[in-house]
Design brief:
Pfam families: DDE_5. This protein is α+β, with helices and mostly antiparallel strands. The chain contains twelve helices and twelve strands.
Amino acid sequence: MEWSVATGASISDTPPGAREKSTPFNASLTDFTETLFESLRRADQRRCARTYLEALLRTPGKKSVRRLAGSVPSPTPAHSLRQFVNLSPWDWDPVMERLTRWATGHGTVRCLAVARAVLPKRGEWSVGVHGWFAPSLGRTLNCQLGLGAFLCFDGVQTPVDWRLVLPEFWLGEERLRRRARIPDAVRHLPPWALALDLVDTLTARGAVGAVPVVADLSDDSEVGHLLAALFRRRRDFVIAVPHHFKVLRADVAAPRAIGAGTLAYAPGAAETVLVTGPDGRQCITRVQDTTVRLPRVPEQGSGPEYVCRLFAEVCPDRWPGLVWISNRTDLSIDDLASLAAVQSAAAASVTAMGELGLHDFEGRSFPGWYHHMTLVSAAYAYQRLTHAVTAPHDAPDRP
């Protein structure tokens, strides 16, 4: 189910006249960067961080390091910015923690969304690059995959942490690990485990309280492990699962496992549902839902079978769509569908981050990838939560 909801304006939607107000931007950006990069030990690191972040916000078009360096009022050599992102040994986790705390001061967090970033790459040298089949395109892409954690406010979805999906071959070959500077402690985790790690990290930061987790893991055949783990953590969730994911009908005494998609789209009466998007806009659609039980996963042992709601949008224009499972059996289907709509909004935010250079990282290393994602996330959060805009400086169109 890909709910059609509005997700807010992007940079290109900003009225041209608003871009001329750069003084408040500069003042507030200084405070923002001083708070965010306080953990960086050296003054030159903090200066490069502010320059890089401001350049991401100012530079139109492609965010190559040379264009970033030429777009700020006080130019910083391109090699300094490149070294700061690729080689400087600063820890991104304290920066992300400060970004999380700063973001939560701008509103009430409605839910935590986990969204995928697909970063196409040429060649095979960038860390984590591999062939990934894109269901929406029907073909395999050479790309990096990242999972981002988004704090969802009313109408705004803010990225506050990331995990890079590393296929096993990247971690099993010492040559690849050394070349990409992957730390020894990093091990292979499937997407569901990376999503759980993001949830646990944000929970430990005290940022998300008891808000539900929303994610699309419709291509992860092991998603049952995530659902069981969230149940054990008493964490509410609305998760899109594969159509072949096995569930048990709750209204049958001795049911056989059946595919979630088969059950969700079985002949039956669909309800008219009012979906309220993250920005408050509403739309009407048709949804079919039922109560199911989840088969036990190995780590669950002899514990109880979990009871959930299974639902899917019945729309000829988008059929078959996503199939969702939630442990909030007490909520109305309108509320569940509205939570599911947040996932589309978070995915749209990933797309909008492309305007701030999400796809333009020139490095290949593991630390460099996390440094870049941290800086782009900070620029996006600052832009969306402060609504700050600037007049882009003319940058030379260098290669």
